[in-house]
Each structure stands twice: as structure tokens, then as C-alpha cells.
Amino acid sequence: MSNLKTSTKTDVAIKNFRNKVVELENKLLNSNDTNIVKGNSDSFPLTHSFSDGVYVREMKMGKGGMVIGKIHNRSHTWFLMQGHLVIATEDGSFEYKAPTYVNAPAGCKRVIKALEDSVFVNVHPNPDNIKDIDKLEKMLTCVSYKEYEDMNFKNILIWAW
Fold first, then answer.
1. CA–CA separation, 110 and 113 (whole Å)
2. Is 63 helix (H, G, I), strand (E, B) or coil?
3. Which helix (H) or strand (E) holds 81?
4. How far is CA 114 from CA 79, 90, 117, 160, in A?
5. Where are the alpha helices (DSSP H) in 4-144?
6. Dihedral of CA 121/56/49/52: which sign?
7. In the Cβ-directed half-sphere of 149, how many Cα atoms lie within 13 Å?
8. Considering only CA atoms, which of 108, 102, 123 is closest in space to residue 59?
């Protein structure tokens, strides 16, 4: 019996999800439509707070708003403090009503739609107590699946020695 994972329909579905989300994200980022918000804004205000070893990022989303998140390098926990969301990941599409929390795996990219005004909070480890948001984003997220896979492959090689 082999321990090697074989290709399955799930692998194809994951690749299709990733390709479609990246295609949509690129289309939106390259759009000149003034209704498309890119980054922190009055439409999706972000609040950052810190505790010893912890970074908390809060986002407010108005009803009908949609967000395509970045790929997270590490597992983390997110909380829905207020509202009702539909979140699509490569594992499927799920509805969440506040209050709730989810342990999100590393490598996850989410497409989020607010069905009601919502408050969404990510909690990340921050062992070096970094408070520079740009540095934190570079540490916690990747801009592409290739970057994420390369980072993980590099980590595997380091641990193999």
C-alpha cells in the first residue's frame, strides 16, 4: 500500500477554484471601475490591534460588499463578530452567522460576500511583535499560489536537513 496521494477530482476542483479566483481578482485589480475598492478604504475599513505575540485585523463590510482575500501563509483563526457572510474557498461555499469562529488552514484564499453589515476579525500569531502593517502582510500572506508553494517547498527542504 502506497502513502502517495493520487490525483483526484478534488485536486482538479481545487485547481479550477484557484484559477477562477485568481482570474477574477486580476480582472478586478486591473479595472478602472470606481466601484471596485482596492485595499483599505472607507468602504472596507480595517482596524489593527496588537497584544503580546498577537496581531488582530478587523474589517467592516457593508451589506452586499465582496472581498477577495490574500493567501495566508499560516493557519489562523477568524471570527465573525456581527453579521452574515457567505465564504467560498477551495473546500466549498459556506454561510456563517455571527457570532462564530473558524480555524482557517494555511494556503487558504477566501472570497467573502456580506449578506448583512458584518464585522470580520482575523487573529494571527505575531511572535516578534511587529507593528508595521506592510511587514506583517508580507510575513502572513502570499500574493500567489506559486509563491505559497515555493515557500512551503523551501521550508520542507530546510526541515529535511
1. 10
2. coil
3. strand 76-82
4. 14, 19, 6, 43
5. 9-29, 133-140
6. positive
7. 3
8. 123
What's the mean pLDDT in 125-134? 96
Alpha-carbon span 66 to 33, nearest angstrom: 15
Q: Are 106 and 73 in contact (CB under 8 A)?
A: yes
Torsion of CA 96, 37, 104, 90, to 10 degrees: 90
Q: Which residues contact 157 (CB under 8 A, 6 or more apart)?
A: none
Spatial neighbors of 18 by CB under 8 A, at least 6 apart, are 90, 109, 145
- H-helix or E-strand spanning residue 158: helix 145-160
Q: What is the largest CA-CA distance in the chain?
A: 56
Judge if pTM exceeds 0.85. Answer: no
CA distance 26 to 137: 19
pLDDT at 122: 96
User: Nearest 5°: phi and psi at 36?
Assistant: -95, 120
Q: Which of 12-26, 82-96, 143-157 has the highest mean pLDDT?
A: 82-96
